């Protein structure tokens, strides 16, 4: 999901104007840790995944730091998102990665903190990073009392809706049964409740996890811990089975746009921006890129409705972090930057640039009137948990879910087959 969050956000603005982002080129890393100067240097380098078409909050924060500290020079090393994981690990292994690198919590991806720390590639951080740890996420940022990543924002994973399309449809469905009814009504008018990228596993995987939010994690937020302890399995979980069966329910009710099985990310951006679809299973910060691409259109973040009598629930977690390369020769300068970035003013600014929620001061955040107004009560009342796959032991589990849901949509796989594959991938 984390890759999906950034991958979609990078495609949103450009997808309405150009068919692909194939022109992205790998930026060179001339200012690596290997070529850096002494430990007393005020220069350091920063690597992050990005697109040439969308402002990077990581680069903007670095530019603001240099304005506030004129004696500091940061060399930015942006990388195309699709190759970032492999590039980062290759450079870390070669000892020439940037001084500061953007990572993700957990262990499910190539840029994930836990395996990189286990391999000795990341430097332990200080109390500034520790204080930014979201509740319940300690185990995804390090172990044995050490923290190897500094959270940058809180990303909500739910639905992003075109509010004009919501009004045209009458209202947003209050529960899952009403959702099915609305799907049928919209289909008859040539529209759809959801736009999905059926050919893109990250999107089908996120949809499935969204369906599991109310069916699995609202009932048992510690379900992942139980799976790790071998107390439960995906195949033996009524909640997970219900979530994947709901994919067929949505398909049969006409909730997806025509041709959904073969659709790419452009189907989501065009559908939401054009109002032919009401909502999409995309990370919440994408509302900002959509609003930029479709000027004058209001987008909002909403929770996927639960079954009648159930509890609405969303995912919210710190999906990105700053980490310091253990081989860096500029650790002092790198950590000074992280200490500055941890200050409330900077965490708020970072979130505003990216369209996310701030990693600090969330208890005082004004949800009213903004894109998050519909999920504000859920966040304030604690009706959320981290994205499930952040806590899964490897990326193969999520891959089995994402590609398996593609098979469900095309009729080639059953929910039971997908769940069994996820258990096998867990290892």
Automatic annotation (TrEMBL):
Q: Which UniProt keywords apply?
A: Signal, Transport
User: Signal sequence: where?
Assistant: 1-25
Q: Which InterPro entries match?
A: SBP (IPR006059)
**PANTHER family, per this entry?**
MALTOSE-BINDING PERIPLASMIC PROTEIN, MALTOSE_MALTODEXTRIN-BINDING PERIPLASMIC PROTEIN
Membership in a protein family: Belongs to the bacterial solute-binding protein 1 family.
* Protein name as annotated: Raffinose/stachyose/melibiose transport system substrate-binding protein
Source organism per UniProt: Pseudarthrobacter defluvii
The organism's lineage is: Bacteria, Bacillati, Actinomycetota, Actinomycetes, Micrococcales
């Amino acid at each position: 999901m984390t890759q999906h969050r950034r991958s979609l956000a990078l495609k949103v603005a450009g997808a309405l104007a150009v068919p692909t982002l194939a022109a992205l080129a790998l930026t060179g890393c001339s200012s690596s840790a290997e070529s850096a100067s002494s430990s007393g240097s005020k220069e350091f380098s920063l690597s992050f995944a990005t697109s040439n078409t969308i402002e990077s909050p990581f680069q903007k924060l670095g530019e603001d730091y240099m304005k506030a500290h004129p004696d500091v020079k940061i060399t930015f090393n942006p990388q195309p998102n699709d190759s970032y994981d492999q590039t980062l690990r290759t450079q870390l292994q070669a000892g020439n990665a940037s001084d500061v690198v953007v990572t993700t919590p957990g262990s499910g991806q190539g840029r994930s903190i836990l395996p990189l720390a286990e391999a000795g590639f990341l430097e332990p951080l200080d109390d500034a990073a520790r204080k930014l740890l979201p509740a319940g996420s300690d185990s995804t940022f390090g172990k044995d009392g050490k923290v190897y990543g500094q959270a940058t924002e809180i990303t909500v994973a739910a639905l992003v809706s075109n509010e004009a399309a919501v009004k045209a449809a009458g209202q947003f469905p209050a529960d899952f049964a009403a959702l099915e009814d609305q799907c049928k009504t919209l289909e008859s008018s040539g529209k759809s409740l959801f736009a999905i990228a059926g050919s893109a596993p990250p999107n089908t995987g996120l949809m499935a996890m969204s369906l599991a939010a109310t069916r699995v994690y609202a009932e048992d937020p510690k379900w992942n811990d139980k799976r790790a302890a071998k107390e439960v399995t995906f195949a033996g979980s009524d909640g997970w089975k219900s979530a994947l069966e709901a994919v067929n329910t949505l398909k049969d009710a006409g909730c997806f746009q025509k041709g959904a099985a073969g659709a790419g990310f452009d189907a989501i951006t065009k559908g939401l921006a054009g109002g032919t679809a009401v909502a999409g299973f995309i990370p919440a910060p994408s509302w900002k890129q959509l609003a930029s691409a479709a000027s004058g259109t209001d987008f909002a973040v909403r929770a996927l409705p639960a079954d009648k009598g159930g509890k609405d629930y969303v995912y919210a977690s710190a999906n990105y972090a700053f980490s310091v390369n253990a081989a860096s020769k500029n650790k002092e300068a790198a950590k000074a930057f992280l200490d500055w970035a941890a200050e409330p003013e900077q965490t708020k600014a970072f979130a505003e640039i990216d369209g996310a929620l701030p990693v600090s001061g969330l208890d005082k955040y004004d949800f009213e009137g903004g894109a998050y107004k519909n999920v504000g009560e859920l966040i304030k009342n604690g009706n959320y948990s981290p994205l499930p796959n952040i806590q899964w032991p490897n990326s193969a589990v999520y891959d089995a879910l994402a590609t398996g849901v593609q098979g469900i949509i095309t009729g080639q796989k059953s929910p039971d087959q997908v769940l069994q594959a996820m258990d096998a991938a867990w290892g």
